[in-house]
Amino acid sequence: MKDCLFCNIARKEEKSTIEYEDGNFVAFHDIHPKAPLHLLIVPRKHIASIDHVEPEDTSLMGELILTAQKVARLRNLKGYKLLINVGREGGQIVDHLHLHLMANL
Ligand code: 5GP
Ligand code: ZN
After folding, report:
1. Using a 6 Å cutoff on CB, does residue 33 contact ligand 1?
2. Which protein residue has the closest C-alpha to ligand 1 atom 12?
């Protein structure tokens, strides 16, 4: 999507510090980290939120979790937190589905 911040980050049209990327996902550092390591993992596909996930996205959502696991293993993390905010009332500010990965280093 053209005017979406995280689509633009995934396309590298907007600056970010990318930690990991593959064909379906990009993981980059949150601009206002709330933990010593705070990454955002986004699908390249524009999905506005968990509330917009369709049955056709089922395997992509599974891959999202496996991507978090992969990034954590690459970092040798002993433990971490995963968080998805859904909707304004749920604390979601950017309308492109993203998984927060937070850890102490
Ligand atoms: P949400 O509240 O929508 O779940 O999380 C959005 C996150 O995106 C926030 O933690 C915020 O700090 C981060 N964020 C907002 N704008 C930018 C940006 O331009 N670049 C990066 N890297 N992170 C951003
Ligand atoms: Zn988007």
Report:
1. no
2. 32
Position 44 in a domain: no
Helix (H) or strand (E) holding 73: helix 58-74
Amino acid letter, 32: H
Which atom of ligand 1 is nearest the CA belonging to 29? 22
For position 1, what pLDDT does the model report?
A: 84
Cα 66 from chain centre? 12
- For ligand 1, whether the C-beta of 94 sits within 6 Å is yes
Question: What pLDDT is attached to residue 29?
Answer: 98
Rounded CA-CA distance 90/105 in Å is 27
Active site residue 98: yes
Total of domains in the chain: 1
